[in-house]
Amino acid sequence: MKKVLLAWLLTGALALAPEAWAQSDAPTTIEYSERVPAEGAGKTALYQRALDWSQNKFAYKPVSGLKTEEGTGAVRMTGTSKLKRVDNKGKDQEVAVLFDFVFRANDNGYEYSVNSFRVVPDPKQPTQVISFDEYRSELRADKSNERTHNDRRLTAQAVSLASEAAMSFRSYMNSTPAEGHIGVAGGEN
């Protein structure tokens, strides 16, 4: 009886395996977006805080296209980072990636996103930029991709980058000191 049950389980697992493999090749949207309620915080205060992070704490440089609109509480900019693919010999090769950070505030909260990933495939031609999806398709078509898995490798790194940038921003926004209480609050001993 145990052998029959084991055979059925093994057959079922093998039958589902191709479907699981197909899912791993599905395109992954690389974006991190969030709406954050902040009752009564005020659009101007939230905008100023996001602007301060953008100008002083944003770690993905060089930054380009910084656009601010105080009236609408909006900040938008393009950040730069590096991803690492592997060549045929197993050595890392850096690839420049660009992404957008977009912020918009209202009186009771804000929303932000990290998205629009683009790749500079050739460092000798920095003005040639293609979408991340197009670059990922080129990697999949490469005959060495079965060995290097560069399409999945760069996708995972880009997803991680989006999450990392978003966490940095959210952490900064959450560290807003209460009015009149700058620094660490502590009780008296």
Write up this protein.
With 189 residues, the chain is an alpha+beta fold. Helices cover 40% and strands 29% of the residues. It contains five helices and six strands. It has helices at 2-24, 43-56, 132-141, 145-148, 150-174; strands spanning 32-37, 64-69, 74-86, 92-106, 109-120, 130-131. It is elongated.
Fold blueprint:
Elements: H1 2-24, E1 32-37, H2 43-56, E2 64-69, E3 74-86, E4 92-106, E5 109-120, E6 130-131, H3 132-141, H4 145-148, H5 150-174
Antiparallel strand pairs: 1-5, 2-3, 3-4, 4-5, 5-6
Helix pairs in contact: 3-5
Throw out a few tags for this protein.
alpha+beta, 6 strands, 189 residues, disordered C terminus, 5 helices, elongated
**N- to C-terminal distance:** 69 Å
- The percent of residues in helical segments reads 40-55%
Tell me the overall shape. Answer: elongated
Please give the count of helices: 5
Q: Would you identify the regions where 5 or more consecutive residues have pLDDT less than 50?
A: 17-23, 180-189
Total number of strands: 6
Q: Assign the structural class, choosing from mainly alpha, mainly beta, alpha/beta, alpha+beta, or little secondary structure.
A: alpha+beta
Order of helices and strands: HEHEEEEEHHH
What would you say about this model in short?
With 189 residues, this protein is of the alpha+beta class. The chain has helices spanning 2-24, 43-56, 132-141, 145-148, 150-174; strands spanning 32-37, 64-69, 74-86, 92-106, 109-120, 130-131.
